Amino acid sequence: MDIRFTDCSVSFGERVALHPLTLALDERRIGIIGLNGSGKTTFARLINGLVKPTKGHVIVNGLDTVKDDRAVLAEAGFIFQNPQHQLIMPIVADDIAFGLKNRGLPQHEIAARTEAALARFGVTHLARRRVHELSGGETQLVAMASVVVTGPKILILDEPTNQLDLRNRRMVADTIDRLDEDTIVITHDLELVESVERLLLFHEGRLLADGKPAETIRRYHEVAGC
Ligand SMILES: Nc1ncnc2c1ncn2[C@@H]1O[C@H](COP(=O)(O)OP(=O)(O)OP(=O)(O)O)[C@@H](O)[C@H]1O
Questions:
Q1: Which CDD domains does the record cross-reference, listed alphabetically (predicted)?
Q2: CATH 3.40.640.10 is held by the domain 3-224
């Protein structure tokens, strides 16, 4: 990935969610940690243009998140903290096909790509299931398949193991590890980011640490006071 933040800040009314930040990200595996409300999600949403900078610019693989907003959405896929909210169609396979239909692809290509995405995430057996009947782990895998099928180069995952039991957590973590796409993972699950190439720590809307996981996690314990 090639993501550049230039003097970028975000305010919601009076509240500063992100203080001015200049930063370049070019690793394949990046993690983001920090206390609740520290600015992690705001930072991540800047990357695919869901949040626009109040000041400054964010450039993602050469695209400006304000000027090229549609192209940025295609470049960087976002899997939300509660992925059930991003599943739109009632049936799993239809949900995975939805983004492809929107792009006007021919039916045979939609069918082939949907099938490949189901297989890639190990959810072929769930193709005809209702999305609201899926377990937490299944929902996470289907949400990843629905985003990845459209071909983003970067995947942003917001707390992907939140609320998963030990087995589903392991399955989702292994799936993330094997992704070909570049990933940015926001999490409170420190095990999930202990082997990323670069780990960022946000605190009160500022980037407080940025480096190898062990050192960033040490700083996190310091600011958390435990
Ligand atoms: N749309 C919004 N409108 C107003 N304030 C917002 C909005 N989005 C975020 N904030 C505020 O910005 C700050 C940073 O929020 P953000 O969601 O980025 O934190 P976070 O580190 O992801 O938190 P968590 O771990 O709890 O998910 C918080 O004080 C939050 O209340």
A1: ABC_cobalt_CbiO_domain1 (cd03225)
A2: no
